[in-house]
Please model this.
Amino acid sequence: MRLGEKPGTVVGLAAAALLFVGGSVPGSVSGSSTGTRTVPPPTAAPTPTPTPSAPPLKDFQRPVTDCAKHKCVALTFDDGPGDHTARLLDMLAAADAKVTFFVVGEQAVHYPDLILREVEEGHEVGNHTWHHTQLDRSSIARIHKEIDGTSKAIERILGFKPTLMRPPYGATDARVAKIAKSRGLAEIIWSVDTDDWRDRNSSIVARRAIRGLRPGAIILLHDIHPTTVDAVPAILKAAKKRGLTLATVTDLLGGNPKPGKKYMGE
Ligand SMILES: [Zn+2]
Model:
């Protein structure tokens, strides 16, 4: 979707995608099952089937993985979307892996189609500020601007606000926590840092991520680096071999991360 297109396009896509995956669309079932429609007399002309009302795109954020039953690990990709995100999404789809993208506002507005695709394919989108700003060194007014601007940009694309945020550099303080709480955002840090921004070498990045694969881990990666995207197939393969399920952060945290709370991963 390009900027400026009507949100109806988004909802239409959502409905189409949901039908495609075989889910039932509320409103597409026979009206008689609701008990609210009068059965027409036999002589009446058939009532045209009403266009099913499309479910909100937010339905795509529903829990997909029960991490109480599966051994889950969360891969997180920051700072995008970018030129390599589409390729990453193809890899994730092929492996049926769900991940979380912490997007920066200034990138989100350039790649609305990718933000949409991320959510439609079962991934989660979180707030990573507008300019990748170090929030613990920012004024309260600036923190508001960085967080709210990004949540609004995401809402304009998806129709709903994110419920997760990741402060850039993991740098947060009590003011950030308070604002996050007031905005319904949980703060998500990480337990495994691949340093993929520094070492642009896919074998090194894969090795660090694979070493960190354990239930409850939150692994930090960046989808703006082609070397990181190149490392992903090996990480997915290793996770599968160890019986780990790649899940979104919200699913990893049991489906209900608490606003204002900071999560570090296991
Ligand atoms: Zn970042």
Q: What stands out?
A: Residues 7-37+44-55 form one domain. The radius of gyration is 20 Å. Residues 140-158 form the longest helix (19 residues). The first strand starts at residue 72 and ends at 78.
